[in-house]
Every structure is written in C-alpha cells, then in structure tokens.
Amino acid sequence: MKQRIVWILLGFMVFMSSVVMAAPAENAAPGSRIKDLLAEWRKGDVKPATGNRLPGKVGLVWQPRLDDATDMSEAERIDCINVVSPCWFRISSEDGTMSHAALSPDKDYVKKAQKKGYKVWALVSNSFDPDMTHRLLANPAGMKRAIDEIMQAVKKYDLDGINLDFENIEEEDRDALSGFISRLGTELHKENKTFSVDVTFPGGSPNWSLCYDRGAIAAAADYVMVMAYDEHPGGSKYAGSVASIGWVENGVQAMLREVPAEKLVLGMPLYSRIWKESDGVVEDVETLWMEDADRLVREKKLARVWDADAGQYYFEYQKNGQLCRVWQENARSIALKASLISKYDLAGAALWRRGFETADVWPVLAAELENSQR
Taking every annotated instance into account, which residue ranges of this chain make up the domain GH18 (predicted)? Predict the structure, then answer.
C-alpha cells in the first residue's frame, strides 16, 4: 500500500512539473523557468527585421514642452528638421506600466506635425530611476508589458517611430537592457516603425555610460542618438563647457568603434550654464538658454572671447561677490559641432531641446546637413 502511494505521489509531481514548465512566463513561479527566461532576455541576440531609416540625414529636435512659439505641430516648419520627438511617455513601474510624462500625448499633434512633413518619434524614458529599472529588467513579464504598451501607443497615436531614452541604469543590468532593446526593436520593425535609442559617450560612470552595450544597441536600432553634452554636468564641482569641440570629437571617434556611422546621430545642446564661483569653488550653477546668454552680454556690455579649444565664446562677470563664468553655445558653436556630421559621415543631428535656441541656429544647421549629403 505504501509503495502504491509513493508511486501515485511521484506521478503527481511529474505532472505538476510539466504544467509549471508549460505555463506562460508571466504566470510562472520563481524557479528554473524564470531563470531561463531571464537568461533569454539578457542575451540581446534576437535579430530585428529590416530597419526603417530615413532616405537622407536625420534632423531631429526633442520637444518636452509646448507653447505657441515652439510647438512643432503649429509653428512654421523648420526646413532642416525632419523628425520631432515629443517627450510623452515613461515606464513608471517594474511591472512595465507606461504613464504620461509632463507633456501629454496628442493625436492631433501627430497629424499636424506629419502634415508639415515631420516624422514623429515619441520619446519613452525609464523615469531615470535605477532601482525601478533594475526590477523591471529582472522581470520578464514586466518587460513584455512595457513593450506591449509601447506598441499600443504607436498604433493609437499613429507614430512613425519611438525614441527610447533609458538613463541612470545599474551597470549589472547592461545585458538585460540590450535584450529589452532588441525585442522592442523587433516589434517596432514588424510594424515598419523607426527605432532610435539615446546613449552617452563611452568611458563615463557605471550608471550613465558603462550600462550601455552600444554595439548591441546599434544592431537592434535604426539610429543611436549620442547625447554629446553635459561634459560638465549641472552637479560638477568644476566650471567648464557643456560640450567643447575636442570632447565632442573624441567622443564621436570612440562611438564609431562600436556604432556604424550610418546609424550614429550627433546630439547637440541648445543651452549653456552659468557657473557661479567663490574663491575658485563652484557654489551654484544655472542653465542658460541661448537668448538669455545673448541678453546677458547685451545688458552687461560684456566682452566675449572666442575660446578656440572649447569651440565656444567665453565670457564672465561679477555678481553678488561671485565670479559668473559662461562657455556659450550659439549658432557658431553649433555649426562647428555639426561639421563633424560631414567629417565622419554621420547619420544626422539631434538637438536638446526646442525652445532653448535662437533662430539663427537653424540656417547654420541646414547648411551643415546639406554639406554632409554632397
């Protein structure tokens, strides 16, 4: 009798094991199945379908805010821009839930922008939350849901593509991130949509640079947008340029060791920073739009000096006992950086962000993009 009971129990255990192994990943209990699925996600070796790149150079501008003067769907068309990226979505939970960012998605915006001749690649961020992102990338069901929700948004708003902006990620999640990007690229390409991914230059910190496998990302995406700015970020202890020309060019050269030139888009800043120092120590920093920098020079009657090493104008002044220092981004510095597009035959330009620029930026950018296509 005991032997019969043992055989019955063994049979039941084998049956239950087969049920668990056959269960969908999102319903699987912790154990070997989950480990297998995570290993699959971390491989990052799923090959995307044929991509969907533009016939010419990319001219993209990000749009995180709207007003009458800068709304890309309403304002007069900018000839050198062929893509707008409204900053609409963010993954807000480890279960893959996607929510709206500060700017709400708007189908009318898409229709109007497309009518003006722009492609619309909506931005999706990870909220720059490393802990949430770590849990998401350890959760196959969460990654699947995130991809499903992105694809639903693509269809709902009739988007031309997606710009993925995942930043501040644990270095240990590098392979899992590549796997997520690869699968998202596959789904987007099934719908003939363009996929671009934002990264930083190689060689930085674990959370802001070492977390990216740029070669794997380039294999999965149509474009890799390198954010060639924040050489001296807002929290820096030292004053300096946001994007000096030498730093940018060295970064481009490093990127090209991992990313094909025909996929690499050069991201450029439309802003500067005021560094406020006392006794040589940075005490405060303020973001400065191009128009505000010009206004400062006019109102304070400041003398600007061209800093050839930085590829920018430099000026300084005293206020409230502090030395205020600025390496200024303007049309001349943008033209100099944009010349790297033709020098290295890059895929185009991206600018952060709409509303920070002065109008003279667009003609010089147009000239450099036109020169790069000759």
Answer: 56-372
